[in-house]
């Protein structure tokens, strides 16, 4: 028996795309832009 197993966050949209992957990719691109400005 499992107790206190939540709340959980789902990171996949209705089309099967990983929202975590999308955020990670966007963050990496933004980081490249920021480093270029240094």
Description:
This protein has 38 residues and is mainly α. The chain is 47% helix and 0% strand. It has one helix and no strands. The chain has one helix spanning 19-36. The termini are far apart.
Major beta-sheet overview: none
Strand content: under 5%
> Helix coverage percent of residues?
40-55%
Overall pLDDT, averaged? Answer: 94
Task: State the end-to-end CA separation.
Answer: 53 Å
How would you describe the shape?
Answer: elongated
Counting DSSP H or I runs of 4 or more residues, the number of helices is: 1
Poorly predicted regions are none
Provide the structure class: mainly alpha
In short:
By secondary structure, the protein is mainly α.
Please write out the topology:
Layout: H1 19-36
Features:
38 residues, mainly alpha, 0% strand
């Amino acid at each position: 028996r499992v107790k206190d197993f939540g709340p959980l966050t789902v990171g996949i949209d209705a089309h099967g795309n990983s929202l975590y992957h999308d955020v990670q990719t966007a963050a990496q691109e933004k980081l490249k832009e920021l480093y270029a400005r240094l």
